[in-house]
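Interim report, section 4.2 (structural modelling).
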Amino acid sequence: MRDRIWIVAGLAVFVALITAPFWRARRDVGDLAKLPVLTLPANQTQCVAPVAYMRASHMKLLMAWRYQVVREDERKYVAFNGKVYQKNLTETCLGCHNKEQFCDRCHAYAGVPSPYCWSCHNQPQAGASAVSAAALQPQAQPAPGARRSPDRLLSRMSGWPVSPVPRRAQ
Amino acid sequence: MKITRKDFLRLTGLSFLAAGTIEATHAIAGRSAAQESAPRKETPSQTVRWGMVVDLRKCRKDSGCDACIQACDSAHNIPQFSNPKHQVKWIWTQPYETVFPFIQNGYAEQTDAGIQVPLMCNHCADPPCVRVCPTQATWKRADGIVMMDWHRCIGCRYCMAACPYGSRSFNWLDPRPHIPHINPDFPTRTKGVVEKCNFCEERLAQGQRPACVDACPEKALVFGNLADPNSEPRQLLRERFAVQREPELGTGPSVYYLV
Amino acid sequence: MFMFEKALEGSRRYWIWLFCVLAVIAVGFVFYMYQFNVGLGVTGMSRDVSWGLYIAQFTFFVGVAASAVMVVLPYYLHDYKAFGRITILGEFLAITAVIMCMLFIFVDLGQPARIFNMILHPTPWSLMFWDMISLGGYLLLNAVITLVTLTAEREEVAPPAWIKPIIILSIPWAVSIHTVTAFLYAGLPGRAFWLTAIMAPRFLAGAFCSGPALLILFCLILRKTTGFDAGQKAINALAVIVTYAMAINVFFILVEIFTTLYSRIPGDMAPLEYLYVGLDGNYHLVPWMWLSGLLAVFSLSLLLVPSWRGNRVLLPIACLAVFFSLWLDKGLGLIVGGFTPSPLDTITTYTPTLPEWSIVIGVWAIGALMITVFYKIALGVHEEIGEEEVHESVLVAGAAGR
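Predicted structure of the assembly:
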């Protein structure tokens, strides 16, 4: 029975790991019993599809759009009510919805924070809702000396001269 | 001579096999033959093949004009890295001698000296990058544009090794902090994917010409449909002597240079 | 499970070694997380030299993996009994090397989370697809073969008959992995240094000397540390294989150099100039490539003389020389040479950075860990049945009697 301590410790680590998402959501969202409050678009009453569908399957719609636009050059979306939309995350979706007050809140609550859409796709210049312009220009110009850019850091780490030499250039 | 049932079946089987082999050979050979001829001739069904003609006589790169590069960079959120190892280039310039080493005759310094040639993806008819990509993250559209799917690219950089023109760039670092002004209408890229000139397919979809073409003050860049004999680039190619970059590789570049 | 319990008992020295290896792996992992977060910009790779040490190491270790065929083929096809004790070592080396290859590819990816796009969107016209198939298949074949033969050995029964065709299949498969890896490079237009039909044969020759050289070194280390004797006959036979393969490898390299230098086509010459004499004031890799060449000549002169080849001191030196000569040639020069000068005639120097080296050494350490555990298992099984044999007959005295 002298292994008991190891077994208990191992189990504790296992339980901690497997419940980690809940702890994290608690930290990020606060009271999990309270549903997230979403700010709905002020200028529109109808989304590109019925609310129930969007709530359950917006990711499927987005995946279909991205496939059709990028790979099939199909950019027009005819909605269920006959209205025609551009298949465009920044223009169409974020034209009405506010990322922080709509997408992020629900995603944080559901424990699927920040899908990688946002590492490339931008928020529109003038958002439909009240978000300051500063927040819409993410990391456009890092303040000088605020944080060492990884670029500089690693050129220091490698310490090698890097300029490419054009041959027969002159 | 009597043919037994067994012989008959054997012969039939062999004939089918032979016919199948011929069919397969035709299918394979026919396909590759079509690919080989593609650089020179469009297949009849291809009604659009986007292409570009660069008039080096008109281009003023030597006098410091970089309007096309500026236009492209801001339209496509091209990051500006100071470290040349990490640079991302869609359209850029390079000395004439390094771009067209085969035109050198050894005594042309007077005329060629200092000429800077604008370079971009050649949107090849038979692109080696498309051939090697293991996920079809880069592929050739019916209108000839070699596209990139930044959602799918795994960042293996095989396409960069395959491209004989050095037209592809990799996002060695997160590009966002290095983009002076983000154009919200075009996505930035994420670290770890390959990118290159897309012939402004997003502008073509709206009926506009590529940003570099519109930006050129000398109208040195001419864009149009190479499959249409009456298009502007085709007229220029009829009238003037034009070269492609390394045509001997059989890639069939869609970018032509008037020298 | 899988006789893994054999790896869990060992001397103090064994555990210290494992601990050291794990520490190196941990360092490599930390640096990988750094690379994962910041991007591949933490390496020395660039827009012009877009593949570096990772892909070069991948290429080199594909060769090591393929070299298992040099013990498997004589033993199973020619019934060469002397290789009986080391065949399993060769197969475990293959498994280790293939896993290392996969890791080297993985750490080279810009978007590693999307690696399954390779399977989700299978692309048969890409050589990368076939490399995945051949490496994965080779790993599977060798895993099945080692498991089945080792289990049979432990239970002291003949391996089941169905394993024989699988073993036979593994022989051409080994050739295929290195051929496909050569085709990755040899099929690209515009990279003159790689565009050569002799690349696959040259890869195989290089593999069949560097791999068995490593195996000889492992056998000698095992003799020192565990008392396991591979048998002098087996070692001698391996040394002959290394000699022939190295001679062929050097011949192939010279053939390449002749074709390029005598034809004097500038585009073809430039990479060779860059590697061996320097180009436009860039002598970055010149000392390393000459070291590789000198080691090749040195090792070959040791190996070609039978009495030196059989010498207990000179053989390991020759094997080390072979290994490092090939490591420099294939694990460094081949990839960088293919990218230099760039298509636009610029020379960008490539020097691996500290994070890059740490990650590479971390992957080596994972290899060392795997090979240690695998050999521990194999020798454990050997000892287990060996002890019983001692009980049964008094004949075996040499190995056990120290």
